[in-house]
Amino acid sequence: MRKLLAFALIASLSLPALAALKPGAPAPAFTAPAFLAGHAFTYDLKAALKQGPVVVYFFPAAFTPGCNAEAAAFSRAIDKFKAAGATVIGVTAGNTERLAAFSTDTEKCAGKFPVAADPGAKIASTYDATMALKSDLASRTSYLIGRDGKVVAVYDAMNPNQHVQQMLDALARLRQSPARH
Known about the structure:
- The protein has 181 residues and is α/β, with parallel strands linked by helices.
- The chain contains 6 helices and 7 strands.
- The chain has helices at residues 2-13, 45-49, 65-83, 99-104, 122-126, 163-175, and strands spanning 31-36, 39-44, 54-61, 87-94, 115-117, 141-145, 151-156.
């Protein structure tokens, strides 16, 4: 019985919160300390949106298996996002002291997109993208934000395998809707 209870507790800690921001809702603007290829800078969502749509993907912690896989997937697909006029930013509250290394690691971000530190998951909270039972960590939630600052699409799943494709599909739909990009 103890093993079952322990398993249930561990499983519940990995549950994501249900993303509350729906398509059409305004995306909260934010600035955050970030790294691109190991170089520190301040990321500004409003400034990024002036260049085109932005994928804001929240992830639990740098240098963890699922987050490594997700970062690598975004890194491999970054040229597709760029070709569609979009940029990508990863945001995490976990292992923030290691983001400079994470941003350069050739098997993770590979210096192809920035990752931002969100200590205490304050930004993630404004996006309702925190873990249900561990609200100081971000859940694995991806948002596509249109140039108008509104949420175009959201994908909320702890499995990292579909986040990139879901965001690329949403971006393709957005590009077919000239009023939003």
